[in-house]
Amino acid sequence: xxxxxxxxxxxxxxxxxxxxxxxxxxxxxxxxxxxxxxxxxxxxxxxxxxxxxxxxxxxxxxxxxxxxxxxxxxxxxxxxxxxxxxxxxxxxxxxxxxxxxxxxxxxxxxxxxxxxxxxxxxxxxxxxxxxxxxxxxxxxxxxxxxxxxxxxxxxxxxxxxxxxxxxxxxxxxxxxxxxxxxxxxxxxxxxxxxxxxxxxxxxxxxxxxxxxxxxxxxxxxxxxxxxxxxxxxxxxxxxxxxxxxxxxxxxxxxxxxxxxxxxxxxxxxxxx
Length: 272
Known about the structure:
Helices cover 44% and strands 17% of the residues. The chain has helices spanning 22-31, 53-68, 80-85, 87-94, 102-113, 125-130, 132-140, 154-159, 166-180, 198-205, 214-228, 252-260, and strands spanning 12-16, 37-41, 74-77, 99-101, 118-123, 145-150, 186-190, 210-213, 242-245, 267-269. The mean pLDDT is 93.
């Protein structure tokens, strides 16, 4: 794809394995209200977390190709699993177009914010097993200590809308009691679903621990990069995101409302 078709008016492309990446859409909208957003959620093949690296890398390429048809000026990988295991595939497929992954953005922000140098990371099984957050944080500073914990039940609880539910609190206490007692001062939400459960997480970790939302981190990084390239959209309007999914699950409308706080705009179904 040649660079000359890209202009400040071109959209930002965002993809995720499912609907979790809508927290990234929301954060980008809050940070860059004038930008047009094209979102692809691979709802037919979610979750990516338990799949093999070979499969995840193939999906990453196909997801990127779907966004490229819309000639985006930037691609944001909202999926932590793809960010951990296949960011290079996205970059190769995107060619000249800048690519930002939630994982590196979250790791950089955590490294900037920590005072004690002890950072906690929670995420899916695949993200935690890949050790990618620990590696990215240690690239920022070799001395930092990273405590990681997989929290696989958080995604279904978030999608069930169990925001303030006793079940969520019990599960969160089980997952977080060890990590909160390990003297960390910063906790990275290493999965795009987790901001939905942020209140419960914060109640358990307490006020002394700074929460890093990788969705907010990646939105801030997108603004810096577009600004540096002179590619910010000069418009003042607010556009609805253009949503594409590979399957329209029955609960999509209520999940969209849960993640975005607004009614669902039109959705385009795309075959993969």
